[in-house]
Design goal:
By secondary structure, the chain is of the alpha+beta class. The protein folds into four domains: 52-248, Histidine kinase-like ATPase, C-terminal domain (Heat Shock Protein 90, 2-Layer Sandwich); 254-414, 2-Layer Sandwich (Ribosomal Protein S5, domain 2); 443-561 and 651-688, Rossmann fold; 565-625, no CATH class. The protein contains 21 helices and 24 strands. The longest helix has 34 residues, at 396-429. Helix 4 runs parallel beside helix 7 and helix 9 packs parallel to helix 10.
């Protein structure tokens, strides 16, 4: 999740801005004429200067996602060595101070003189964009990093980088500062002739990134994913900051990956696994059906997660539907004329991981998330069709269990269709009326509108009074919505609160969802900062993830951050969002009263039990704890939580689809044991929890 902060601009800044504006207006007209476009207007950025000038163009952003992407790019080089059959072990170390080391036992980056660049190939790889062995199909037949930004971009965005290469019994070394070599490549030692590989250590540039604090769990998720996809390799992740360490190695590969995703579900059969090659395309597939109502298909091309699917996914879906349909017809498992099966029915409760390798992948757009190679569709379709037909012939009992699941899904789909039609018909009869409890905004342009989904009528009343009616809509919820993880869509639509949410947002639900019809640019969840509030928020996030997922993918879902405390002394008043901030405000108020430093440190804390709503400290300081949003009056709610210029909100994002899928299933599924383990593992983060 991403924090989004807004603060009032200082008057001095506004004055300075006006001065600059007036100064600009005094410039001669010639300076603004378009016909002054000449050779002098063309700026040439040499070397990696362009990367430092516009880093977001190369790594997406300079926030947490872009920061961790640096590590992935370096690891990609090691994975490419593994794909070529030369690397078995990768070690990733987070050092104190947040520098990173990635070491592998591959062949080592070449260090001899490049024929055209006239300098070491190592220096070329590290300092020149679009260089490397990935463009030579003799070196790498397939490559995950081919369409990536490359290690040279990581070098450009690092304060410093040091590279050691182990080849020919020698240790070659070169150091760089912000993308430029400090000195030529040199030999700094000797090693065994058998030792080969590359060791890259770098420190992200603090002038580029807002925060260089690497998250162990974020890196662990990607390393685990890579280990599942490449069962031959072992990846060790070490965090020297807090002595944390984890090793990822999965002999079962995709079979174990499917088990990991479905840990909290009940499988209908053993995982089905196929591996082989068709038309020059290596294909791996692991899948199984479970007792859930969700479809979970994860596709990868050269280890790249293709979130938007592509030709390989189309080939898999086509083969699955056709082959199972043929099996059902051949075994008279479908009563003629009773119900018509469609592709969605064959994928309810399916968890599948499809991984393919393509020599020349064509990804649509800049995102690398949708494969466009037309030849891959027929290769995957033929391969899966042949393998699955053979499997069903040998395991007819499994096939019958799957068809029984498919038939139940079809019946549920028909019930859901009728429920959606009922909702649409009711809206039409009511002249497309919105929920009665919705306080809508006056502006109709979605990009300038936002809706607060608020816990409880009391908080909803305060929010309605405190909002800016022009662009802020309020929808109060009564109680908790249904847990959609345990219910099919027609049951979900029977819930009154969910129907209100669907109608208010306006984009439909499930397969009918159309993001272009959504009525608000921001959908903000505002719940109490207690256990019940957290539960309601999780129920809502599960609903959006399952039935309006595109809202999360498009960055339209946010979480409001109401304060936990109000600290007051006389006319001075502050709001604190956590215990640390509360103590800082208490210190400030005490120092204003010229208390002794020892007294400030001695009495800085205001530990309060959940039952306490107010605590008086020496010096006339009063600390109030908010148990719920309803305790705030409209003015306080606006000032702390709803004013776009002062509020803090969290943007909900999906960085790893498989990990996100698993978390929702653990938290909201039927299995108690995985949930207990998750709570025990993450209990240490509760006091500093953002959401």
């Amino acid at each position: 999740m991403t924090k989004v902060k807004s603060k009032k601009k200082k008057e001095s800044a506004k004055v300075e801005k006006e001065k600059i504006k007036k100064k600009d207006l005094k410039k001669s007209d010639n300076e603004f004429k378009t016909d002054e476009y000449s050779a002098e207007s063309i700026h040439v950025l040499k070397g990696l200067e362009a990367v430092r000038k516009r880093p977001a163009m190369y790594i997406g952003d300079t926030g947490s996602r872009g920061l961790h992407h640096l590590v992935y790019e370096v690891v990609d080089n090691s994975i490419d060595e593994a794909l070529a059959g030369f690397c078995k072990n990768i070690v990733v170390i987070i050092h104190k101070g947040n520098s990173i080391t990635v070491e592998d036992d591959g062949r080592g980056i070449p260090v001899d003189i490049h024929p055209t660049e006239k300098r070491s190939a190592l220096e070329v790889v590290m300092t020149v964009l679009h260089s490397g062995g990935k463009f030579d199909k003799q070196t790498y037949k397939v490559s995950g990093g081919l369409h990536g930004v490359g290690v040279s971009v990581v070098n450009a965005l690092s304060e410093w980088m040091k590279v050691e290469v182990y080849r020919d019994g020698k240790i070659y070394f070169q150091e760089y500062r912000r993308g430029e070599a400090v000195e030529p490549v040199k030999v700094v030692g000797k090693v065994s002739e058998k030792k080969t590989g590359t060791k890259v250590t770098f420190l992200p540039d603090k002038t580029i990134f807002r925060d260089i604090n690497f998250k162990f769990d974020t890196l662990a998720e990607r390393m685990m994913e890579l280990a599942y996809l490449n069962k031959e390799i072992t990846i060790k992740l070490i965090d020297e900051r807090n002595k944390e360490e984890e090793t990822f190695h999965y002999k079962g590969g995709l079979v174990e990956f499917v088990h990991y995703i479905d840990e909290s579900r009940t499988p209908l059969h053993k995982t089905i696994y196929f591996e082989g090659e068709k038309d020059g395309v290596p294909i791996e597939l692991g899948f199984q059906y479970n007792d859930s109502y969700q479809e979970n298909i994860f596709t990868y091309v050269n280890n790249i997660n293709t979130h938007e699917g592509g030709t390989h996914l189309i080939g898999f879906k086509t083969a699955l539907t056709r082959t199972l349909n043929n099996f059902a017809a051949k075994n008279n498992l479908i009563k003629e004329g009773k119900i018509t099966l469609i592709g969605d029915d064959f994928r309810e409760g399916l968890t599948a991981v499809l991984s393919i390798k393509v020599a020349e992948p064509q990804f649509e757009g800049q995102t690398k998330t949708k494969l466009g190679n037309s030849e891959v569709k027929s290769a995957v379709e033929t391969f899966v069709g042949e393998k699955l037909s053979e499997y069903l012939e040998q395991n007819p009992s499994v096939g019958k269990k799957i068809i029984e699941k498919v038939l139940r899904a079809a019946e549920s789909r028909e019930a859901a269709r009728k429920a959606r039609e009922l909702v649409r018909r009711k809206n039409a009869l009511d002249d497309m009326s919105l929920p009665g409890k919705l306080a809508d905004c006056s502006i109709k342009d979605p990009e300038h509108c936002e809706i607060y989904i608020v816990e409880g009528d009391s908080a909803g009343g305060s929010a309605k009074q405190g909002r800016d009616r022009r662009f802020q809509a309020i929808l109060p919820l009564k109680g908790k919505i249904i847990n959609v993880e345990k219910a099919r869509l027609h049951k979900v639509l029977e819930n009154e609160e969910i129907r209100a949410i669907v109608t208010a947002i306006g984009g439909g639900i499930g397969e009918d969802f159309d993001i272009s019809k959504v009525r608000y640019g921001k959908i903000i969840l505002m719940t109490d900062a207690d256990v019940d509030g957290s539960h309601i928020r999780t129920l809502l996030l599960t609903f959006f993830f399952r039935h309006m997922r595109e809202l999360i993918e498009q960055g339209k879902i946010y979480i409001a951050q109401p304060p936990l405390y109000r600290i007051k002394k006389g006319k001075e008043e502050y709001y604190a969002y956590d215990d640390k901030e509360r103590d800082e405000f208490i210190k400030r108020l005490k120092s204003n009263g010229k208390a002794k430093l020892e007294e400030i440190e001695e009495e800085q804390g205001a530990e309060m039990s959940e039952n306490e709503s107010e605590k008086k400290l020496p010096g006339g300081i009063v600390v109030s704890r908010y148990k719920g949003l309803g305790e705030m009056n409209p003015e306080q709610l606006w000032a702390t939580t709803m004013n776009p210029e002062t509020r803090t909100i969290l943007q909900v994002t999906i960085e790893n689809a498989a990990a996100t899928e698993k978390i929702f299933e653990i938290l909201m599924g039927d299995q108690v044991e995985p949930r207990r383990k998750f709570i025990e593992k993450n209990a240490k983060y509760v006091r500093n929890l953002d959401v």
